[in-house]
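Thread: quick sanity check before group meeting

JM: Hey all, I'm pulling together slides for Thursday and realized we never actually wrote out the predicted structure for the chain we discussed last week. Dropping the sequence here so it's in one place. If anyone has concerns about the input, flag it before I start.
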Amino acid sequence: MRQFFRTTACLCLSTLLCVQPIAYAQQDLPDIGTTAAGTLTIAQELEYGDAYMRILRSSSPIISDPVMDEYITGLGHQLVANANDVKTPFHFHLIRDRSVNAFAFFGGYVVANTGLFLHANNESELASVFAHEISHITQRHLARHMEDQARRTPLTIAALVGSLLLAIASPEAGIAAVNATTAGSMQASINYTRSNEQEADRFGIATLARAGFDPEGMPNFFGHLADQYRYSSTPPPMLLSHPLPKSRLTEARDRAGRYPKVNPSVSLNFHLAQARVIARYADIDFSQSLSWFERRLKKATPMLKPTLEYGKALVYMDNGKLDQAETILTRLLSNDPYNNFYLDAAADLYIHKKQYDTALTLLQKGLERKPGNQVLTVNYANVLIEANRNKEAINILQRYTHANPDQTVGWSLLADANGHLANEAEQLAAQAELFALRANWNKAISNYTRASQLAKLGSLEQARYDARIDQLRLEQQRFAALK
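JM (edit): ok, ran it. Output follows.
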């Protein structure tokens, strides 16, 4: 399914990815614990995290791509299942940005740039970045850092949190506010951040090993990244902020070497995700992207050739060469008929060719094997809309959005389907949910107010719209109180 995203300025909330020295294996960790309970409760962190994510959706090019979301969420949760001190649910998101970066913030949110896929050679290297960010959250580094700042300055925790929220809404103003509040303790702040980075590396590499990934993935990723940008005038953001000395790589390799040797099997899904990023999110033209895939196909192993063929198929399809794309996808599906990457691409292809029944048959077979799968469900609804079977799509999407209220793609499709049927009130309601997910409370409430006015007086629909208006006003008040 083609992606849904907003393009705006990219935000770096904090330097939480940061390349600091990887320290010691899990058994050598000091008993630091996850303090900061005196600063913010877990419930407060969840509330701030939700607020940050809403602003981020409105201010950064977050990718709403069901296939990529499924992949990074699966990878992230595999790591979370092997992490220590997990106290919050976790959410994983991608930003369309070729630079190498990732960050974590309150409430279990981990956000990574698509540029990571352009530099990671294998899944263990990519997983090492996610493991590091997960450790920032489990060890509550942001809350602990704020607690430390509060001890050293006359400011309250509320003022510090408000500055962070402002930094997301308006980066320049927010950074100025944070600088003004912490100028008196700059060196202490830097030292505290460095200790957090070291702790995140220690916990992260231990999580990486327990999850079955190669512990060498972390030093290998940072090592070849440093080599690539060693003489560059514009290194990636994390190398600008945190240089990568040889001592750090030596320590990282030493730490990874203390774990048993691991040789994970090649992850087909990682290479498919990488191919999808190169084909659709790397901002390179048709000839360049096609050449990239063809060069690698000449020397690829038999296992990896399908992933490169998949990338070629996307490039062909997105540039209107449907017959070439169909030839490749038909071959890929014949060998792996239930692969979500292939099924998603085939759904796009047959929409372009207006062969809706063919697309629905493929997706239905996939859903019989994987009932309720989000990628297949969203694609199925999308094909129904394109086939002008909007009532069927609405039935599916109503259940989908109820189960996944934070996913913008479901609400976008639901708004489209209702719009095609001239169901203005329901279209307004679905659009209102999109506004709310982007912290645009006034437009969300306005949409629901208009929907209520269109509904039959005293009907269940009107009661539902009015109840949602009350909920949104409460959410708006809580959101305003955070600032």
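AS: nice. Residues 4-257 form one domain. Confidence is low (pLDDT under 50) at residues 4-37, 168-192.
JM: adding both to the slides.
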